[in-house]
Target: Cholesterol esterase
Amino acid sequence: MESQVRGGTRWKRFAVVMVPSVAATAAIGVALGQGALAASFSVSGQSFKVTADRLDGTGFSQYGAIDSGYTLKGEKTAHPVAVSAFRSATIKGMCQSVVTPDVPLLGSVSLMLTAGGGDKPVEAKNLYIDIEQLEADATFRGIDIGVAAKDANKGPGIQKGDTANPNGFAQQADSATLTDVKQTAWATTAGTFKLSGLKMSLSKGVKECY
Model:
């Protein structure tokens, strides 16, 4: 039976494609908000934007790596990144957004997540952020610059599965505070990630955190 057409959109067919992924994303978001899951955010072949009013982390390390994957067209892709890792972190005023272009009949579709507002920050353990670009005001305490990645023992270590040179350049610190954070990332992974005050929205067009 042909799906119903309204304004040129085959709504039944559109729902078959979109509803399962939206429902799954929402369910994962609720579980993360309750602190029930480990978390891994990555978008096939796409970077995403993250902002934060303030990040306080302990056990910091940073090293170079290569993120690889596939584009939405199934083409292999690879990107150099700086992996920032924290044994633990709290994040106030977090926003994360990704824009999926060229969605049939819709054009661009934006997904935005916000959390950690008010007096309940986002809480993360063994947090890894694969960063392409970063802007922030940063303070590091007990910093060591120029250690080998394999010897950076203040942070959680090189993440399993990372394509990284263990003898490559790295830096580490006892703790770090970053404010007015704006970054473009390819992946975020945490052993636990509690998103207090989680809000999620999907919208047509381009809507980003910055």
Summary: The CA atoms of residues 128 and 160 lie 11 Å apart.
